[in-house]
Amino acid sequence: xEMHQLTYFESVSRHLHFTRAAQxxxxxxxxxxxxxxxxxxxxxxxxxNRMKRHVTLTEAGKTFLPHARAVLQRLEEARLEVQELSxxxxxxxxxxxxxxxxxxxLPRALARFSESRPGITLSFREAxxxxxxxLLEEGELDLAVVIQPIKHPALETQPLLEEELLLAVPKxxxxxxxxxxSGRVRLAQLSEEPFVLLREGAYDLRDQTLTACRRAGFExxxxxxxxxxxxxxxxxxxxxxxxxxPQMVLSDVDPRDGPVVLHRLQPRLTRSxxxxxxxxxxxxxxxxxxxxxxxxxxxx
Length: 300
Hints:
By secondary structure, the chain is of the alpha/beta class. 40% of the residues lie in helices and 25% in strands. It folds into three domains: 3-84, Arc Repressor Mutant, subunit A (Orthogonal Bundle), CATH 1.10.10.10; 88-161 and 272-298, Periplasmic binding protein-like II (D-Maltodextrin-Binding Protein, domain 2, 3-Layer(aba) Sandwich), CATH 3.40.190; 162-271, D-Maltodextrin-Binding Protein, domain 2, CATH 3.40.190.290.
């Protein structure tokens, strides 16, 4: 049994298609088919049910797949450890984060890391926390910044930062504040106000906004649904509605002479960001160093 046979088998198992696997592996399709047949002959059982347009795993294939992936993962971990002996002069690091973090925190961290480790190729994936958790589980990412709560037995997390969520309103929109809570706007007072909501499925903040409003006793009136993080402030400034957004997204808002005014809320709303990774995968020196850089960037 040879290592490239396991690589070919794993790729075909993911694509369930010999041609697509060959394209990913940058080899000829007949070569993939030949090596899979050799592997099946050595194992004494077919690994795929071959159909006209695609293939499916046999029971033997399903049984063999996790073992093949474990061997390939161990080989990759060994490769990383050997690379680290040469001072991390080369390698790869795959990182993920939600759009707000990817826009406002990750650029500083990625730039600092890239400057100190120019030989490490960085890969970045921007997505919602649920998608990022799936990518971590599948081994597509080495680490990701995700929003709590995260409950997954295969993942290990460490705190990164907790930030307040603020209410953004168009300039000239006067909201009554509660003097007993240091000028905060009570969320219950917004029951008749129009809201601008982020796109469903891509942003955990959307669900957090809806949950907070419902706990305050009302279903928010949605004036515009499906916004992206970088367009939310423009929608608010145009007077379409109010929005609840993370403090880091609002860091560039001019509190004195801008088109948007910020208010703190009562009850106080926050979100907690953590760094997540697979607990059963090797935590490379590059990943450890990037984690430190990310923590430093979150404090500046």
